[in-house]
Design brief:
about 230 residues; alpha+beta; 4 helices; coiled coil
Protein backbone atom coordinates (compact mmCIF):
# COMPACT_ATOMS: atom_id res chain seq x y z
CA UNK A 1 0.00 0.00 0.00
CA UNK A 2 2.83 2.41 0.77
CA UNK A 3 4.28 1.58 -2.55
CA UNK A 4 1.05 2.44 -4.34
CA UNK A 5 0.82 5.70 -2.45
CA UNK A 6 4.37 6.60 -3.39
CA UNK A 7 3.68 5.78 -7.01
CA UNK A 8 0.65 8.04 -6.97
CA UNK A 9 2.74 10.87 -5.52
CA UNK A 10 5.59 10.60 -7.98
CA UNK A 11 4.18 9.31 -11.23
CA UNK A 12 1.59 11.07 -13.35
CA UNK A 13 -2.01 10.09 -12.89
CA UNK A 14 -2.42 8.32 -16.21
CA UNK A 15 0.70 6.19 -15.50
CA UNK A 16 -0.63 5.22 -12.09
CA UNK A 17 -3.92 4.20 -13.62
CA UNK A 18 -2.19 1.99 -16.15
CA UNK A 19 -0.07 0.35 -13.45
CA UNK A 20 -3.08 -0.30 -11.24
CA UNK A 21 -4.71 -2.13 -14.09
CA UNK A 22 -1.71 -4.40 -14.57
CA UNK A 23 -0.62 -4.87 -10.93
CA UNK A 24 -3.05 -6.63 -8.63
CA UNK A 25 -3.45 -4.98 -5.29
CA UNK A 26 -3.37 -8.23 -3.32
CA UNK A 27 -0.14 -9.57 -4.74
CA UNK A 28 2.19 -10.69 -2.03
CA UNK A 29 5.05 -11.98 -4.13
CA UNK A 30 8.24 -10.26 -2.96
CA UNK A 31 10.08 -10.79 -6.23
CA UNK A 32 7.38 -9.01 -8.07
CA UNK A 33 7.53 -6.05 -5.77
CA UNK A 34 11.30 -6.06 -5.98
CA UNK A 35 11.14 -5.82 -9.76
CA UNK A 36 8.62 -3.07 -9.46
CA UNK A 37 10.88 -1.28 -7.03
CA UNK A 38 13.79 -1.48 -9.43
CA UNK A 39 11.68 -0.12 -12.24
CA UNK A 40 10.47 2.62 -9.97
CA UNK A 41 14.02 3.53 -8.99
CA UNK A 42 15.07 3.72 -12.62
CA UNK A 43 12.06 5.80 -13.46
CA UNK A 44 12.77 8.10 -10.58
CA UNK A 45 16.40 8.52 -11.66
CA UNK A 46 15.27 9.30 -15.20
CA UNK A 47 12.76 11.73 -13.81
CA UNK A 48 15.46 13.57 -11.87
CA UNK A 49 17.67 13.72 -14.95
CA UNK A 50 14.82 15.03 -17.04
CA UNK A 51 14.06 17.58 -14.37
CA UNK A 52 17.68 18.76 -14.42
CA UNK A 53 17.52 18.94 -18.19
CA UNK A 54 14.37 21.01 -17.92
CA UNK A 55 16.06 23.39 -15.49
CA UNK A 56 19.07 23.62 -17.80
CA UNK A 57 16.84 24.25 -20.77
CA UNK A 58 15.03 26.95 -18.82
CA UNK A 59 18.39 28.58 -18.16
CA UNK A 60 19.24 28.39 -21.81
CA UNK A 61 15.89 29.86 -22.68
CA UNK A 62 16.43 32.75 -20.28
CA UNK A 63 19.92 33.28 -21.65
CA UNK A 64 18.58 33.17 -25.18
CA UNK A 65 15.94 35.73 -24.28
CA UNK A 66 18.61 38.02 -22.88
CA UNK A 67 20.76 37.48 -25.94
CA UNK A 68 17.75 38.16 -28.12
CA UNK A 69 16.86 41.25 -26.10
CA UNK A 70 20.39 42.67 -26.47
CA UNK A 71 20.21 42.77 -30.29
CA UNK A 72 16.79 44.32 -30.05
CA UNK A 73 18.15 47.07 -27.80
CA UNK A 74 21.08 47.50 -30.17
CA UNK A 75 18.64 47.65 -33.07
CA UNK A 76 16.64 50.40 -31.35
CA UNK A 77 19.82 52.39 -30.69
CA UNK A 78 20.94 51.87 -34.27
CA UNK A 79 17.59 53.11 -35.57
CA UNK A 80 17.90 56.21 -33.39
CA UNK A 81 21.41 56.84 -34.73
CA UNK A 82 20.17 56.34 -38.28
CA UNK A 83 17.43 58.92 -37.73
CA UNK A 84 19.98 61.36 -36.32
CA UNK A 85 22.32 60.81 -39.26
CA UNK A 86 19.45 61.30 -41.72
CA UNK A 87 18.60 64.64 -40.10
CA UNK A 88 22.26 65.67 -40.19
CA UNK A 89 22.52 64.59 -43.82
CA UNK A 90 19.46 66.68 -44.70
CA UNK A 91 20.95 69.68 -42.93
CA UNK A 92 24.23 69.22 -44.80
CA UNK A 93 22.39 68.96 -48.12
CA UNK A 94 20.57 72.22 -47.37
CA UNK A 95 23.91 73.82 -46.50
CA UNK A 96 25.44 72.54 -49.74
CA UNK A 97 22.54 73.98 -51.77
CA UNK A 98 22.94 77.33 -50.02
CA UNK A 99 26.69 77.36 -50.66
CA UNK A 100 26.15 76.45 -54.31
CA UNK A 101 23.77 79.39 -54.73
CA UNK A 102 26.19 81.71 -52.94
CA UNK A 103 29.06 80.44 -55.11
CA UNK A 104 26.97 81.09 -58.23
CA UNK A 105 26.26 84.65 -57.08
CA UNK A 106 29.95 85.22 -56.29
CA UNK A 107 31.00 83.93 -59.71
CA UNK A 108 28.46 86.23 -61.33
CA UNK A 109 29.73 89.18 -59.29
CA UNK A 110 33.31 88.24 -60.17
CA UNK A 111 32.42 88.21 -63.86
CA UNK A 112 30.83 91.67 -63.58
CA UNK A 113 33.86 93.02 -61.71
CA UNK A 114 36.22 91.57 -64.32
CA UNK A 115 34.17 93.24 -67.05
CA UNK A 116 34.27 96.59 -65.22
CA UNK A 117 38.00 96.19 -64.59
CA UNK A 118 38.64 95.45 -68.27
CA UNK A 119 36.66 98.56 -69.25
CA UNK A 120 38.50 100.74 -66.73
CA UNK A 121 41.84 99.32 -67.83
CA UNK A 122 40.98 100.09 -71.45
CA UNK A 123 40.00 103.65 -70.51
CA UNK A 124 43.21 104.00 -68.52
CA UNK A 125 45.30 102.80 -71.45
CA UNK A 126 43.49 105.22 -73.74
CA UNK A 127 44.07 108.07 -71.29
CA UNK A 128 47.80 107.33 -71.14
CA UNK A 129 48.17 107.64 -74.90
CA UNK A 130 49.40 111.11 -76.03
CA UNK A 131 46.56 113.18 -77.36
CA UNK A 132 46.80 114.43 -80.95
CA UNK A 133 45.08 117.64 -79.98
CA UNK A 134 47.46 118.40 -77.11
CA UNK A 135 49.95 120.47 -79.20
CA UNK A 136 47.06 122.47 -80.67
CA UNK A 137 45.73 123.13 -77.18
CA UNK A 138 49.15 124.30 -76.04
CA UNK A 139 49.38 126.65 -79.00
CA UNK A 140 45.94 128.11 -78.36
CA UNK A 141 46.67 128.46 -74.66
CA UNK A 142 49.91 130.31 -75.38
CA UNK A 143 48.05 132.62 -77.76
CA UNK A 144 45.43 133.37 -75.11
CA UNK A 145 48.07 134.15 -72.50
CA UNK A 146 50.00 136.39 -74.87
CA UNK A 147 47.02 138.72 -75.33
CA UNK A 148 47.49 141.98 -73.43
CA UNK A 149 51.29 141.73 -73.32
CA UNK A 150 53.71 143.85 -75.27
CA UNK A 151 55.56 142.29 -78.16
CA UNK A 152 58.91 142.34 -76.42
CA UNK A 153 57.65 140.88 -73.10
CA UNK A 154 58.63 137.23 -73.09
CA UNK A 155 58.02 136.50 -69.41
CA UNK A 156 55.33 134.55 -67.57
CA UNK A 157 53.05 131.71 -68.68
CA UNK A 158 52.67 130.89 -72.33
CA UNK A 159 56.41 130.95 -73.11
CA UNK A 160 58.95 128.21 -73.05
CA UNK A 161 61.69 130.35 -71.53
CA UNK A 162 60.69 132.37 -68.51
CA UNK A 163 64.08 134.02 -68.02
CA UNK A 164 64.48 135.92 -71.30
CA UNK A 165 67.24 138.52 -71.26
CA UNK A 166 65.11 141.66 -71.55
CA UNK A 167 66.18 145.11 -70.35
CA UNK A 168 63.89 146.51 -67.68
CA UNK A 169 64.80 150.06 -68.63
CA UNK A 170 62.01 152.09 -70.22
CA UNK A 171 62.92 155.14 -72.30
CA UNK A 172 60.35 157.89 -72.70
CA UNK A 173 60.68 160.19 -75.74
CA UNK A 174 59.16 163.60 -75.87
CA UNK A 175 55.89 163.38 -77.71
CA UNK A 176 54.83 165.50 -80.66
CA UNK A 177 52.04 167.88 -79.72
CA UNK A 178 49.40 169.21 -82.08
CA UNK A 179 47.55 172.54 -81.92
CA UNK A 180 44.72 172.60 -79.45
CA UNK A 181 41.35 171.89 -81.04
CA UNK A 182 38.72 174.59 -81.27
CA UNK A 183 36.33 175.20 -78.46
CA UNK A 184 33.36 172.88 -78.25
CA UNK A 185 35.22 169.95 -79.72
CA UNK A 186 35.04 166.53 -78.13
CA UNK A 187 37.87 164.37 -76.87
CA UNK A 188 40.88 164.02 -79.16
CA UNK A 189 40.70 161.52 -81.95
CA UNK A 190 43.39 159.01 -82.70
CA UNK A 191 44.80 159.09 -86.21
CA UNK A 192 46.00 156.15 -88.23
CA UNK A 193 49.58 156.84 -87.27
CA UNK A 194 48.73 156.73 -83.54
CA UNK A 195 49.10 160.50 -82.91
CA UNK A 196 46.60 162.32 -80.79
CA UNK A 197 46.18 165.03 -78.20
CA UNK A 198 48.67 164.93 -75.35
CA UNK A 199 50.18 161.74 -76.78
CA UNK A 200 53.70 160.76 -75.85
CA UNK A 201 56.12 158.70 -77.82
CA UNK A 202 57.33 155.74 -75.78
CA UNK A 203 60.18 153.31 -76.33
CA UNK A 204 59.75 150.06 -74.38
CA UNK A 205 61.97 147.09 -73.70
CA UNK A 206 65.01 148.32 -75.56
CA UNK A 207 67.65 145.63 -76.00
CA UNK A 208 70.65 145.19 -78.21
CA UNK A 209 68.62 143.40 -80.88
CA UNK A 210 65.16 144.98 -80.82
CA UNK A 211 63.29 148.10 -79.78
CA UNK A 212 59.52 148.56 -79.60
CA UNK A 213 58.18 152.05 -80.31
CA UNK A 214 54.66 153.15 -79.46
CA UNK A 215 52.50 156.00 -78.21
CA UNK A 216 50.54 156.45 -75.01
CA UNK A 217 47.52 158.72 -74.82
CA UNK A 218 47.84 161.23 -72.00
CA UNK A 219 44.16 161.35 -71.12
CA UNK A 220 43.00 157.76 -71.52
CA UNK A 221 46.28 155.84 -71.18
CA UNK A 222 45.88 153.92 -74.43
CA UNK A 223 49.09 152.39 -75.77
CA UNK A 224 49.52 151.81 -79.49
CA UNK A 225 52.49 149.93 -80.94
CA UNK A 226 53.86 151.43 -84.11
CA UNK A 227 56.74 149.27 -85.21
CA UNK A 228 59.49 147.06 -83.90
CA UNK A 229 63.15 147.68 -84.66
Amino acid sequence: RNFHKRLKQVLPQYVVQELEKEIPTCVEDEDFFKDIQDVYDQLYVQFLKQQENVFSLNGWVNLSEEETRAPQVHLVKSNAQICGLEDENKSLLDRVNFLEKECHELLKSKKNLESKYAKLDKDFQESNKPSKRLPQCDEKFDRMLSIGQSVGDKRGLGYTNEYTNISSKTVFVKGITNPSPPQGSTSPKMTSNGKGRNSKKKVLNETQNNCVVGYTCGEHGHYITLHEK
